[in-house]
Design brief:
Rossmann fold, 5-stranded parallel β-sheet, about 450 residues, binds NADPH dihydro-nicotinamide-adenine-dinucleotide phosphate, alpha/beta, 2 domains, globular
């Protein structure tokens, strides 16, 4: 497809070495062919060239002082990608792997994900190569304050509303919000993922994981199945993974794995949720500790993984929930999953499957829910947090959860009916990309060349 090759070539020339970003763009553009062929207006208004170019990219120095009194310097990013549908919205990631290519891929995905929620939010992402691991609470606070010393001037409740992502939970949001308030003198709903006692929403913490399970339920219902009694594998052991495990157990499935960057747990009797929460939410411990507390569970250290493979995907299962990070599931992993009988994938993480893996899932015709649809519950509930802040209300857990559930059902309907509209029923990658793109592109056309 020449327009895909031309666009990627241009991105490589003007923004070199942003590998994950090219990958995310290619995946979206490959799906758009039937839409671009059907409706000439997108080419006429040159939407492709416009949509792959962020509206604004902010890069800044984050200098902070560690506990030894040494000055440390990190890079800070906020990429305000697209505001056609509403104020910029997307998380902040703190991880040593962060560079412009990661933030750009995440921001690009966020545009379409946010569009799929049906809510009025544009797409953005931010972060830093700061590694929160091994840092004291005071170091985290000083970093967050320094990060905010620059970011505060670019965000606001109707301009750009950041949230959490890898390495950013309610503690980090608290430190950033505190500094924002100090610098601006305003108590605005400028972040989501806040703690409940100062403006957060009930069920926001659970939303991404619960949403990924609701999405899987929708995919299975379409073929007359449920998750009840199914064996599931989950990767990650952070916010998304923990609440995926929780919801899977609530609906009668058995999640048998979790992982972190140091290794994985396989617990054939089912993951013990209380232990997982205690280790990850309270103690911040490694998963090796899990096997100490549950001798029937097996721990495999990442150093012992076979080359180029993530052994989680070789565990026999009916459904898989990749919930750690990008490109954690490659083509060989996909082959192993399919061989072992896995017939449902719901992505809690952003772009966890490589293009080779996606091609295998689509060719096999299994239920495959891409991240931009399956994990949209987090940002959707962030928007519900904004609505509560704006109306000075706090809804009950049940109220938020039931709205989340309805939004996930609606996303599934939109994505699957769009796939069918373009003659590719069941191809939810195509459905999600076309449905998200069409909404944003139509708004861009309405708003003129800006
Ligand atoms: P957390 O930081 O809470 O947890 C991330 C988990 O993944 C940790 O267990 C971490 O292990 C593991 N992990 C991270 N990087 C790697 C890596 N390179 N290799 C192996 N394991 C890794 O993040 P979240 O749970 O919030 O996010 C997980 C994914 O979900 C990300 O892709 C994120 O973008 C996506 N997402 C999150 C949303 C949210 O609401 N939080 C919303 C939508 C998508 P360790 O602690 O050892 O590093």
């Amino acid at each position: 497809m020449p327009y895909v090759a031309d666009t990627i070539a241009k991105l490589k020339r003007t923004g070199p070495a942003e590998i994950e970003y090219y990958q995310a763009v290619e995946e979206v553009l490959m799906s758009l062919r039937p839409l671009l062929d059907k409706d000439a207006k997108y080419k006429k208004h040159n939407i492709i060239d416009r949509i792959v170019e962020p509206e604004r990219q902010i890069m800044f120095r984050v200098a902070w002082i560690d506990d030894k009194g040494q000055v440390q310097v990190n890079k800070g990013y906020r990429i305000e990608f697209n505001s056609a549908l509403g104020p910029y919205k997307g998380g902040i990631r703190l991880h040593p792997s962060v560079y412009a290519g990661i933030i750009k891929f995440l921001g690009f995905e966020q545009i379409f994900k946010n569009a799929l929620t049906g809510l009025a939010i544009g797409g953005a992402k931010g972060g830093s190569d700061f590694d929160p691991k091994g840092k004291s609470d005071n170091e985290i606070m000083r970093f967050c304050q320094s990060f905010m010393n620059e970011l505060y001037r670019h965000i606001g409740p109707t301009t750009d509303i950041p949230a959490g992502d890898i390495g950013v939970g309610a503690r980090e949001i608290g430190y950033m919000f505190g500094q924002y308030k100090r610098l601006t003198g305003r108590y605005d709903g400028v972040f989501t993922g806040k703690k409940i006692n100062w403006g957060g929403s009930l069920a926001r913490k659970e939303a991404t994981g619960y949403g990924a399970v609701y999405f899987a339920q929708n995919m299975l219902a379409a073929i007359g199945q449920t998750l009840e009694g199914k064996t599931c594998v989950v990767s990650g052991a952070g916010n998304v993974a923990i609440y995926t495990v929780e919801k899977l157990q609530q609906v009668g499935a058995t999640p048998v794995t979790v992982s972190d960057s140091r290794g994985m747990i396989h617990h054939p009797q089912g993951i013990n949720l209380a232990t997982l929460k205690q280790l990850k939410e309270v103690e911040g411990a490694s998963l090796s500790e899990y096997a100490q507390r549950h001798p029937e569970a097996r721990y495999t250290a990442a150093a012992d993984y076979p080359a180029g493979r993530n052994p989680i995907w070789s565990v026999r299962c009916d459904a898989a929930f990749p919930s750690a990070t990008q490109n954690e599931l490659n083509e060989a992993d996909a082959v192993a999953l399919l061989k072992n009988g896995c017939s449902c994938i719901s992505e809690g993480a952003n772009m966890p499957s490589t293009q080779g893996a996606i091609d295998k899932f689509l060719a096999a015709g299994i239920s495959y829910g891409p991240g931009k649809a399956a994990n949209a519950g987090g940002v959707a509930t962030s928007q519900l947090e904004m609505a509560q802040n704006a109306s000075m209300q706090q809804w009950t857990f049940e109220e938020v959860d039931s709205r989340l559930h309805a939004i996930m059902n609606n996303i599934y309907q939109t994505v699957s009916s769009t796939a069918a509209e373009f003659g590719q029923a069941g191809n939810l990658v195509l459905g999600a990309n076309i449905a998200g793109f069409r909404k944003v592109a139509d708004a861009m056309i309405d708003q003129g060349v800006v």
